[in-house]
């Protein structure tokens, strides 16, 4: 997904619309894969093919649609876009305090806090083998599963957010694609077999170092049941989504975007947003954020 973006200049980002592979002519890169040969996931029977888009540097390519750039707050409606702003790929947001790595994960020796040669950030460096323990954001992947004009949500059986509702989602595992992971999490949390249809949103939360990718998906069977990490799972009509009982800001934003798109009759949009959590706020304060750098396909 990260390859799906190209910084064209200081004020715009362009994203190509999703097209069948047969119509693609790539000028930079094409990523595509079929899920049918996946070996790491337990839901291979649900696998269909996902079609990834190309990236092109051609501004005149009619397949491109510029994103609208907006900045909104959590108090505003998602469509309440009041200002355009330049996109900066170099802005660093405040982050929650990271756990200190005191011992080397490779040899077990003590680690020191220092700036490695050629770097500009303090890292944990092993005092014996000199290896650096880099701490980088994690990818969370999930599905927006539509079925009979309803959306699948799971009630969490684990902390954080115990008893609150989420889109089926979780951390991406080594060896799997984002789409594979989203389908796997949906199977694990709701025992739902799905086919990935298209990407829906990429949401970054720099404060906690999480990056979310949600995919639209459809059921390949009609059965759902709570997995080991879920108390319940249900399909909700858009009008009944429990916005007051969602677990995280990412879920609130994703579902709000989804409902706004539905109201606008636009069900194929793709969103990219940065969710800036209020420094010091807890994960349970899902409204303590500002939504910035909101790009959406037209
Ligand atoms: Zn070491």
Automatic annotation (TrEMBL):
Q: Which organism is it from?
A: Papaver somniferum (Opium poppy)
Q: Name the lineage.
A: Eukaryota, Viridiplantae, Streptophyta, Embryophyta, Tracheophyta
Q: A Pfam family matched by this chain, by name?
A: Zn_ribbon_Nudix
The segment(s) forming the Nudix hydrolase domain are 136-259
Name this protein carries in UniProt:
Nudix hydrolase domain-containing protein
